[in-house]
TrEMBL record:
Highest taxon, organism lineage: Bacteria
Segments crossing the lipid bilayer: 20-47, 108-134, 140-161, 292-320
Name of protein: Bacterial type II secretion system protein F domain protein
PANTHER family linked to this entry: INTEGRAL MEMBRANE PROTEIN-RELATED (PTHR35007), PILUS ASSEMBLE PROTEIN (PTHR35007:SF2)
Domain Type II secretion system protein GspF: 180-308
GO cellular component, one term: plasma membrane
Keywords carried by this UniProt record: Cell membrane, Membrane, Transmembrane, Transmembrane helix
InterPro entries given in the database record: T2SS_GspF_dom
Organism: Halomonas chromatireducens
Membrane topology: Multi-pass membrane protein
Keyword Cell membrane: yes
Amino acid sequence: MESMALWFEPLSERLQDPQMVQLGFAALLGLAIFALMVALMLLVMGTSDPLRRRLRRLEAGGETATAGASGLGQWLGPMGERLVPSEEEAKSRIAREMRRAGKRSPGAVNVFYGVRLLLTVVPALTLALLVIPFVRIDPAVSVIIVIAVAIAGYLLPRFWLERAIKRRTLQLRRGLPDALDLLVVCSEAGLGLGAAIQRVARDLEVSHPELADELHLFGLQTRAGMDNKAALRDLEERTGVEDIRGLVTTLLQSMRFGTSIAMTLRIYAAELRDKRTQEAEEQAAKVSTKMLFPLIFCVFPSFLLVAMGPPLLGAAAALAGR
């Protein structure tokens, strides 16, 4: 009994300290929230069909670069699958946007909605349970902060998707002139369209990997038995680049009317080069207008101070002496 009293005496002294009690309560609350999140994750993974989950793993096994191949995507996919819109139009739109961002995994849409759910719930719940109770903030302000964090977490995946599409579109547009020049050379050397595109895809793997990936996928589709026209249409659909859309339209018209593909590619390359030159001239013409505001608000006040400061000080001293 005396030994037990010796053990409990330091504990009772620590329990009398308010800071230690508050710290212990925060630690227990954090462990409880962590256990709750783990339980919810296991519940979601358990309610999903094991056969479908194994099929997702097999599908993602061949695409290590996609979001579904990671361990995080294996449990975010079932969470987001319940949030995917049931309308076919909305589902096809988000799937098309994911493809244009470079995410072609079958479970990319489910992972996207799973990440959206995670970023919406977890930061807001953490803020509401671990931060706000220990900070002196008005309840109305705390509710507004939690709602703002939840809205930001909901909109963040959409913002990332739009940025990824713009970045990939820019990279594809930058690599298209080099690809056209190589296609012209390969076509004039006697290669067919499919063989020329495969050769260009191999040559652009280092300098323009995004465009090389799209062209390589075109080669895989044609070797699998897809028609060149259907493969070109799919290339136009999954990239969404205006220049590639014009190239596909030009090639389809050349196939339809039986004209020379090499001559068609040479003419389109010249038109694209003229278009890039006009865009560069347009950007250069806007420079003078864009520089007007920094000159007025940054450079001109400093120049005015240096040029007019000494005369104004001299005039002020002369008036003060008079």
